[in-house]
Structures are given as structure tokens and as C-alpha cells.
Write a structure and sequence with these properties.
With 437 residues, this protein is an all-alpha fold. It contains 15 helices and no strands.
Length: 437
């Protein structure tokens, strides 16, 4: 079957998941163990899930463009799935605009750099370090970066999708459309690489505004790519079980399994390099990021490493396991949730500091790294006892995750049914069909 049918039962289940997620998100607005936090649980959950799924959409577009530019043919048989995933960028943009509106209206304190007077010399909230970054860390950059950059990504996704659909009716002229797709793909790569780094610095890294890492964009992108690969494996196996994508063989799944294995190792390399270099420098301004997480969030810290490296590494080490559907499903579920956990780990500890004591956190010069450590230690008492939604994901966070995942799958299914699943006129389709590892 080459035409996907979005069944009523699938719609019902996914709509139910979305309702569950919405109810849980609303509940976090009222149920927040961090008192006086300006509903930090609600806003941080919205940011966490929005960035995670928007990032998956972006990295699907980016990798598809990279493969196209490199004349790869093996993935062509399933590229409509990545096209559908990439178009979720428009939903991500709408959700991000809610975060932007909260930023302008001071409805949340996710970002300490947005506190009044933090960059004003002589103000009681003045912070010299943040003031030095104010040319980039400000609501104007955040707003226009989000609108323009994510809008440009979506424009590329729409253009490439349009050209891809034109191939289906182009007959012998398909190669002309392929060359256009390749042009737009090559055009996106440098733009996407630079703008995605700038936005992940804004969206997530700037929550811990005193801290920075030159590897953060690589680290986040690797996390997105492992998540996108895991989701792709799960969707392909599910759709094959429904009678679709019969052209996708164990050879293709084997390659996706290799990507899952390789980039889990690459993510760990970045995780360790970021940790080791910053820890070795013993610079208080930078070390606090890991000190806070080790001392107050050990389950998040070590659980991240176990789920996203130890288990996938041990399970996928054998070559044969990359061809077993059951094993691939298990590892894909594990790593998909694991990298959602990774973004929780990146976001929540910084939110506790900003929302739990934003006024004191920014006060003073903080030119001495030990002062930064001391200030964070004072606010770390918020995490000394268990707080659902901050120390670890609570039941409401899991419900929100299910809701966003249901929304993402629903959107992907809606796009899949709009066109044939297999781009039969693509010049590299034969290479994909006869792919052999």
C-alpha cells in the first residue's frame, strides 16, 4: 500500500492522548511545589516539550537535506516520513510564541536575564556577568530569533516538501526536481547549523545564564538526532506492521540501528567532553552547572547517562540486534524517553534557581566563581527535598509528554495521508529498494 489511511481508531487514541496532555499541563499551572515561582512548573514543562519536539522536526529536515546533498539514496524510500516530521515546525513555532508572550508579559521567570534591572548598573538586581551578555540575552533577540529562524526553517521544509510532491507527477522530468531539492537542501545546511545553535543557546542554555559551553549546540543536536532516529524506527516498524512501507527492509532498519548506536556514543562523547573540560578547569562560574546537578539531582544526572549510553551501547553492540524488531523497539523507546529526560535535566535545575530565588540570584557582582557556587548552594536547598516536576518528572510531566507525543504523531499522520508514502519517481528510488548492507 502506497497511500496511508488515518484510521478512526488511531485518531481516537491520539486525541485522547492530547486531551490527557492538555489536562496535565493545565494542572501544573495550579499544582506547583515550588512556592512563589510564577507557575514555573507549567512554563518549564511547556518549554521542555516544545523545544524537544520542535528540535526533532528541525533535525529531521537538517539530516534529510544532508543526505540529499551527499547523494545518499538508501533513505529515499522513507523520506516522506521525515518530510512530515519536519513540517511540525509550524506547530512548534506557535507553541514557542506562547513562551515569547510570557517573556514579554513577565508571566514567567524561566530566564534570569529577563529580570528587571539585571543589566542596569546601580540597580539592586544588577549582575555584571549577565550584563556583559545582554547584547544577546534579551527579549528582542529571543523574540525575533524565534520568529525569523524557525519561520525560515519551516519555509525550507515547505519548499522541499512541495518539490518532492512535484516529483510524483513529473514523469521523466523527476531529475530536474531532484536538482532543485538538492539546491535548497545545500542552502539550508549552513543556515540551519548556525541558527539552530543560536536558538538552543537562547531557549535552553540561557536558563543557566552564568554558565556556557562551546559544545552545547552539538550536544543538544545529537540528543535531537538520536530522538528523531528512535522515532523513525518506531514509526517504520509500526507502519510496516500495518502493511505500509514494504519497500523498507531489515537492511534499512539495520542502518537506522547503526545510527542509533553511533550517535548514542557520539552524544556520550560530547557529554563527557563537556563535563570533563569544565570540571577540570575548576572555574566556579562554569562548574556550578554540574555541581548543582550532581549534588541535588543525582538520579537525573546518572539516569541520563545510563538510559542514553550504557543501555543502548550494551544492547546494540552486537550487529545482529540491529536487525531484530523487538530489540530495536525496546532501544528506541528507551532512548526516545531518555533524551526527553535529557532535556528535562538541562532545563529544570536552572528553573529552580531562577524561579525559586530570582531576585537574590542576580544580586551583586558575582565576579568570583566561588560567590556563584555559594549563591547556587543557597538556592539549591529548593532541590534538597523531592519536588515532583523538578527533582524528577512527576505523573503530570509524563502525561504532558504523552500529550505532546500524541500531537506530534497526529500531525505526522495527517501529513502522511496527504501524499503517497513512497516517492516512486525519485531518481534514487531504485537504489533505496535494492539497498544492501
Amino acid at each position: 500500500m502506497n497511500q496511508f489511511t488515518f484510521e478512526g481508531k488511531q485518531r481516537t487514541v491520539l486525541l485522547g492522548g492530547m486531551v490527557l496532555g492538555l489536562v496535565c499541563l493545565v494542572l501544573t499551572f495550579f499544582i506547583d511545589p515550588l512556592e512563589g515561582s510564577h507557575h514555573a512548573r507549567f512554563w518549564s514543562n511547556l518549554l521542555h516539550n516544545t523545544v524537544f519536539f520542535t528540535g526533532i522536526a528541525f533535525i529531521s529536515l537538517f539530516v534529510m537535506c544532508a543526505f540529499t546533498t551527499a547523494y545518499a539514496g538508501w533513505f529515499v524510500g522513507m523520506k516522506r516520513l521525515w518530510e512530515a516530521m519536519s513540517l511540525f515546525l509550524i506547530v512548534g513555532l506557535v507553541l514557542l510564541l506562547i513562551i515569547v508572550a510570557g517573556l514579554w508579559g513577565h508571566l514567567h521567570h524561566l530566564y534570569h536575564w529577563n529580570v528587571e534591572g539585571v543589566s542596569t548598573l546601580g540597580h539592586e538586581n544588577y549582575d555584571r556577568i549577565i550584563a556583559g551578555k545582554s547584547g544577546f540575552l534579551n527579549k528582542y533577540w529571543y523574540t525575533f530569533g524565534t520568529i525569523i529562524f524557525v519561520g525560515v526553517w519551516y519555509m525550507f521544509a515547505r519548499k522541499i516538501r512541495s518539490l518532492s510532491l512535484q516529483e510524483d507527477t513529473s514523469g521523466t522530468d523527476a531529475y530536474t526536481h531532484f536538482k532543485k531539492i538538492k539546491f535548497w537542501s545545500a542552502f539550508l545546511l549552513p543556515i540551519g547549523a548556525f541558527t539552530s545553535a543560536a536558538m538552543i543557546w537562547q531557549w535552553v542554555m540561557s536558563i543557566d545564564a552564568h554558565w556556557y559551553s562551546t559544545m552545547y549546540a552539538w550536544y543538544s543536536s545529537a540528543s535531537w538526532f538520536v530522538s528523531a532516529t528512535a522515532f523513525t524506527i518506531l514509526m517504520l516498524i509500526y507502519l510496516k506492521g500495518k502493511g505500509y512501507y514494504q519497500n523498507i527492509s531489515d537492511e534499512h532498519l539495520h542502518d537506522f540501528g547503526k545510527f542509533l548506536f553511533a550517535f548514542s556514543v557520539f552524544w556520550t562523547y560530547l557529554w563527557f567532553s563537556q563535563y570533563m573540560l569544565i570540571w577540570y578547569s575548576n572555574n566556579g562560574e562554569e562548574t556550578i552547572y554540574f555541581r548543582q546537578r550532581l549534588d541535588s539531582y543525582p538520579v537525573l544526572f546518572y539516569g541520563n547517562l545510563v538510559m542514553n549510553f550504557v543501555l543502548p551501547f550494551l544492547i546494540l553492540m552486537r550487529n545482529s540486534t540491529k536487525r531484530k524488531h523487538g530489540t530495536l523497539i525496546l532501544v528506541s523507546l528507551l532512548t526516545f524517553f531518555g533524551h526527553w529526560w535529557d532535556f528535562f535535566y538541562m532545563i529544570k535545575p536552572g528553573v529552580v534557581i531562577n524561579a525559586g530565588g530570582h531576585a537574590d540570584h542576580g544580586a551583586g557582582d558575582h565576579s568570583d566563581g566561588h560567590e556563584v557556587l555559594g549563591a547556587a548552594a543557597d538556592h539549591g536547598e529548593h532541590a534538597s527535598s523531592f519536588m515532583a516536576g523538578y527533582t524528577l518528572p512527576g505523573l503530570l510531566e509524563l502525561g504532558i509528554f504523552i500529550g505532546f507525543l500524541s500531537l506530534f504523531i497526529y500531525f505526522v499522520f495527517m501529513k502522511l495521508k496527504e501524499a503517497s508514502l513512497v516517492p516512486e519517481n525519485d531518481p534514487y528510488m531504485k537504489e533505496s529498494v535494492h539497498h544492501h548492507v
